[in-house]
Design brief:
With 125 residues, this protein is an all-alpha fold. 46% of the residues lie in helices and 0% in strands.
Length: 125
């Protein structure tokens, strides 16, 4: 029984392998079908390359014009620096700037704990 089941399994496996090993037939390169000669196609290509893009849409169909600024570069830069140094206009609630921690925490202690944690030491809980 054991030998018979192995033979049946091998036959089934070889049948599947033979069915899966078939590939598509290669028909070669298809001949181009065109009523135009090479010279006609070349002339049409030159005309198409020099004409506008018929598939372009609106503003993206041409090169964008050079934009002119309404203000000079120095005034924009000074406004940006002033805005960067001011309070955050998009923050909500109290303490829009940097919050200060009021407490008896020593900076050296926090730094030592951070250094110990970075090195893999366990913190006392």
């Amino acid at each position: 029984m054991n030998t018979t089941s192995k033979i049946i399994a091998a036959a089934a496996f070889s049948l599947f392998a033979a069915a899966g090993a078939q590939a598509e037939a290669y028909h070669g390169v298809h001949a181009p079908v065109s009523a135009n000669s090479r010279a006609d196609v070349r002339a049409q290509a030159v005309v198409a390359a020099r004409s506008e893009n018929p598939y372009a849409e609106g503003i993206s169909s041409r090169v964008a014009p050079v934009l002119t600024a309404s203000t000079d570069r120095g005034s924009v830069r000074s406004e940006a620096v002033a805005a960067a140094h001011s309070a955050n206009p998009y923050a909500e609630g109290y303490g829009q700037g940097v919050s200060r921690v009021m407490g008896g925490i020593d900076r050296a202690t926090v730094r030592a704990q951070a250094h110990a944690t970075a090195r893999g030491a366990q913190l006392p809980l």
